[in-house]
Amino acid sequence: MAKIAYLECVRCGAHVSAESPQTVCPVCVEKGDLPAGSLFVQYDLGPTPREAINPQAVGMWRYASVALPDAEPVTLGEGWTPMLASRRYPNVLVKDEGVNPTGTFKARGMAMAVTMAKHYGLKKLAAPSAGNAGSALAAYAARAGMEAHIFMPKDVPFANYVETVAYGAHVTLVDGLISDCGRMVAERKDAEGWFEVSTMKEPFRVEGKKTMGYELVEQLGWEYPDAVFYPTGGGVGLIGIWKAFEEMEQLGWVKAGSKRPKMIAVQAAGCAPMVKAFEEGANVSQMWQGAETLAAGLRVPKPYGDAVMLKILRESGGTAVAVTDPEIFAGLGEWAREEGMMLCPEGASMMPAYERLVRERFLAQTDRVVLLNTGTGLKYTDVIAEAMGLKR
Length: 392
Fold this sequence. Notes:
By secondary structure, the protein is α/β, with parallel strands linked by helices. The protein has 15 helices and 13 strands. It has helices at about 25-30, 65, 105-120, 130-145, 160-165, 180-190, 205-210, 210-220, 235-250, 275-280, 305-315, 325-340, 345-350, 350-360, 380-390; strands spanning about 5-10, 15, 40-45, 85, 90-95, 125-130, 145-155, 170-175, 195, 225-230, 260-270, 320-325, 370-375. Helix 8 (about 210-220) packs across helix 9 (about 235-250). The protein is globular, with a radius of gyration of 19 Å.
């Protein structure tokens, strides 16, 4: 597996050793520059033959020799998810993360975060979650023989609550949003001896999520698509995919002349801090007041990685789009009936966003587009049933 050169702060550029566990940039903290910058893992990358990929390795670990930290994996078989062609839209492909362990893309990030936590000898992990990250943390902590302490809004999809309890995690249901859960973790972690693995507050969840970028480029014959749609709550996946593109170019794995795709962040109209910041030309988002959407993973009123995401959207020539809950659930039903795919509500948000950008001619129908379905709709049966008016 790859040796880490250093951790780099995305805000101040400081280089930090990876010999001991880190959360956010200690240099920013010492200077009082808050919020402190997130730390990115950096390797000494150079031209490397694609044969360095290990096709015998399970899932995302096929890239371990060149692009993942040197540690013994804690794995449940995450990654190498299918790329499915749409039946209705000839140039639209869906990367279906719903086949991952615990049913969502969160498995990738938590597999890597828990792997490194075990590598460092940590025993107790904690995180706030809108639902699916909590499920994944609980599963991988159980796999590693570690404690998981998870704080979730009390109205999370019921499957998430059932999973976290079944995996043996210590679960606290909170009358509030994920931001309230995050505050509670921050207030208690030192006294309780927890290591926090919140979104963008430790370096390794991005490393797991970036493997989506490696996979989608490999699955497209080492060429970029014209656009990548990403349902955006905390945004680690969007950030990770962009990091993967940078690394693959350093490795020489992307076909010459292949232009990076437009990155498109999709949010719910009831909680769209990134859309508002993008449209206003701001460099950071503001806390979204009264956040409300049935797509639980999109209900993040202020992402910690907002500045990084906004930079990526602009550098890529992309954009940010908000869609309503009725549009999301109409899209979910259409994908189920017409394509045989039970998308999660977050993933279903991409279809109305795609159709809008084609109507507005931001994209052409001939553009090759990848939509990231971040989880299976089966994790949301209570939410979907309510939207469909179904009862047992």
